[in-house]
Amino acid sequence: MRGIHNIHRLLLVLLLTASMSVATAQQTVRYDLDVTDTVVNYTGKTRKAIAINGQLPAPTLHFTEGDTAEIHVHNHMHHETSIHWHGILLPNEQDGVPYLTTAPIKGMSTHVYRFPIRQSGTYWYHSHTMLQEQIGLYGAFIIHKRNERPVNEEVMLLSDWSDENPHQIERSLHRATDWYGIRKGAAQSYGEGLMSGHLGTKFVNEWKRMHAMDVSDVYYERFFVNGHAEEQRQHYRKGDKVRVRIINGSSSTYFWLTYSGGPLTVVASDGADVEPVTVDRLIVGVSETYDIEVTIPADGAAYELAATSEDRMGQVSLWLGDGVKQLKQPLGKLDYFEGMKMMNGMMTVGGNMKDMGMNMSLQQMDMNVVMYPEGNSPKTLNYAMLRSPQPTTLPDKPFRTLQFELTGNMNRYVWTLNNRTVSESDKIRIKKGENIRIILTNNSMMRHPMHLHGHFFRVINGQGDHAPLKNVLDIMPMETDTLEFNASEEYGDWFFHCHILYHMMSGMGRIFTYEHSPPNPQIPDPEKGLRKVYADDRRFYLGAEIGIETNASDGDVVLENTRWAWQTDWHLGPNKRRGYEVDTRFGRYLDRNQFLMVFVGGEWRYREGGHADRNWFGQVNTKDDRTAFNIGLQYTLPWFIVADLRVNHKGYVRLQIERDDIPITTRLRLRGLYNSDGEYTVGAKYILTKYLALSSHYDSDMGWGGGLTFTY
Amino acid sequence: MLLHIGNMAPAQLPNAKTETFRIAGNCGMCKQTIEAAGTRKGESVLSWNADTHFAELTYDSAATTADVVLKRVAYAGYDNEHYLAPAEAYAALKNCCQYERAPQATALTTNSDPARVEHGIPHADHPSPTTGHHSPVDGVLPSYFKLKDALVAGNAKNVSAVAADLSKQLEGLSAPEAKEAATHAAAVAKAKTLEDQRVRFAALSESLYRFTKTNSPSSLVYYQHCPMYNKGKGANWLSNEKAIRNPYYGDQMLTCGSVVETLGGKDAETHSHE
């Protein structure tokens, strides 16, 4: 009896020691992140940015699987911020989407994130507040495997930098500025088309209502690896294998990776291991991560791991080894007209993409190859080559299939799923434990890196049970891809969105919501919070083009959002005889491609000493003194001719056709206007800067003149 | 160390700075390409000598740097002190321009193919591989052996080319013996005649021997001796092969000499390459 008691006691002691050792293994790792406003100077100009712990990018955080992360974010700025842990599996209120999952971190306050680390791999973190990610709020988040001793391991955090305020970038994109194209040498004017034998290509392209071809929308002054143009690690020697954790922390730039010391072996993607696959190059989509291994082939040299922006405007390098630097052949300039020709083939006049029965998927057929001078010969990674080392089959539960068509409109920079923005659609309700299958079809002209918060999905890629796990999927134009995930979290709202910052802000996404989620203590008023989330894609953007010329001032000012537009334009002569005209209208775009807008508006014009004219419809008007209320419609015809048909409250009808910004050379633009009152205008401008052009025009009422045009 | 080559009048550049660099190449056609790549109006003037392989670079130090210019030269296909040309750029050179490349660049073409098939093992479970210990001397010995071979062959042009590379590599190391060896290697590179080169090679071999002695190399190295050289005073050299191929006399007395000491190699056994 006594003996048994002793054995029990012994067992109890053993159990206690065992549980204590487990407790010590699960340690809490605390980081303090001090977020401050800062100024940087990369190009000779001082610019505002955001730093964490005084550095930009933010510091690399290291954890080991099994740790508990405790991260204290101290916001020393006067405006709010947030941190999202990209790719991390965590309780919903720790996810860091302000107003949706997590309380925003108000200015001059501290927020504590605490979550268990239940995975390993390469991840990152960034602000999910407005455009803060563009100006520095991003850092690497590395989770080591248990008992893993990191040897020969580097982080390559890639990013893009513009000297322009990101809010200006965003606004300019909605105005379809071609300034970025000019900066990139990618204006693709008629003159350049003529010189290179692609005049017809350019014409067909505009006929199909497509603006200049580009692979990325923004012009960036600088690209960075870990915040620098280049970095070197000198301690590597011949035969060393280096694991490089590549994180694309850019706002809208894809990067090509190439290595001058031999091929690259991909061993993980988005944090999840894949069976090693060896390639000559790979493209890293915005927000994707890849772990690669490279080998140092010889001593006495440093070998270049180069990351080249997809538009090939810049390159950053990580040099591995010591000695003379072995360069990698740079990627040549893009042949935009070849890309345009390809696009012409795929785009219908109606503005739809057709894949011509090629069943494109998983990056296997990169249509952009037509633009690459090096062609298709380097062995390039695609998603079909990724294979998980372990089976990734989902629990045996019913599947629910959701179909999303990726839709968009380059001209007005509206990006949507099924032609709906986040704010225009309901949350998608999912049941805990069910399997979700998402079929994505990209019917837009751009590629989109679609990111799912808080879950890994399997990419159905022909690898069967070993389909790779990812949390970002890059989908190229015309591709169809299938993703599957199990609703394995407990509760909450999970964002699914395009990770190109300016696409996300325009509303390209959806919110998945677990049914029967408990109230989120961090979001005391969920309805109000959701309105804040929706406000991102409901914003209006101001634009203007104002000419001050010797004969008159022609100008227009617009205020537009996803669907609504308020447009005002004027023609003001120098005196009463030349006359004054002002027209304003408020309208809504109706169709998916936003070619059609209906509007109501008013006009006022005054002139002395004019005479009565008969219009095309036999109606008579002096145009000398008219105050009228209009209804009408605008339709963008092929070749970007905007037709405006309206009738005023007296039944007077006017039809006008207008074409602006015909690119003759890189910087020379022509415009023309003609209407049923017999009025016409022709004009030209030579673009000096983003905001300023020399201009001249002839107006049937105002005559010739020249001066300056301001574009905003 | 400045070699004034040709009759290039120092260009009328503001903030002008002139430096001399070794740039690989063979012929007149190379000269054209190298100079075109290195010269940019108002920024830099590069003049390259096909015999010595030295280039004189004059540049506006406010507008550009020597590094930027040498990078352009490498992109045009020519290895130099700062950069090795991309494999594609080198391959695109005309046959007559395909100079003998630095060992680091050659390693690339020979190593890249096995690397392709090597990666069969799934990475998932095994932790990052620990790599073998390498001695700092491992990095410079191949270049030294190349230099020795050039002396055996009696190719003075090649000797200065390889010696310049070796000197650069040695300079990158911190050990005092390496610094000393670097000076001697530079002297070999500058020597005008084969005879002169061999005199300086003897001094280089002495300092490199001491460096190798203190930093055991991972593969076997043979310290060899020629009793006849320098009027019977004798001279030594290092070799990666046991058989004697005398760098001091070349084919006049190729096999004269003997092994006096064997260095290193233990690491090569314990840390064999996977």
How is this structure best described in words?
The complex is a heterodimer of chains A (712) and B (274). Chain A is mainly β and 712 residues long. Chain A is 12% helix and 43% strand. Chain A has 8 helices and 45 strands. In chain A, a hairpin with a 4-residue loop joins strand 1 (28-41) and strand 2 (46-52). The longest helix of chain A is centred in the first third of the chain and has 24 residues, at 2-25. Chain A starts with a helix and ends with a strand. Chain B folds into 2 domains: 16-97, 2-Layer Sandwich (Alpha-Beta Plaits), CATH 3.30.70; 136-270, no CATH class. Chain B is 41% helix and 14% strand. In chain B, the strands form 2 sheets. A 3-stranded antiparallel sheet of chain B has the order 1-3-2. A 3-stranded antiparallel sheet of chain B has the order 6-5-7. Strand 20 of chain A pairs parallel with strand 4 of chain B, so a sheet runs across the interface.
Shape of chain B: elongated
CATH architecture annotation name of the largest domain in chain A: Sandwich
Annotation, overall tally of beta strands of chain B: 7
Distance between the termini of chain A: 92 Å
Strand order of the largest sheet of chain B: 1-3-2
Q: Over all CA atoms, what is the radius of gyration of chain A?
A: 29 Å
Q: Give the largest chain-chain interface (CB within 8 Å).
A: A-B, 43 and 48 residues
Keywords:
heterodimer, A: mainly beta, Immunoglobulin-like, 4 domains, 43% strand, globular, B: alpha+beta, Alpha-Beta Plaits, 2 domains, three-stranded antiparallel sheet, elongated, disordered C terminus
Quick synopsis:
The complex is a heterodimer of chains A (712) and B (274). Chain A is mainly β.
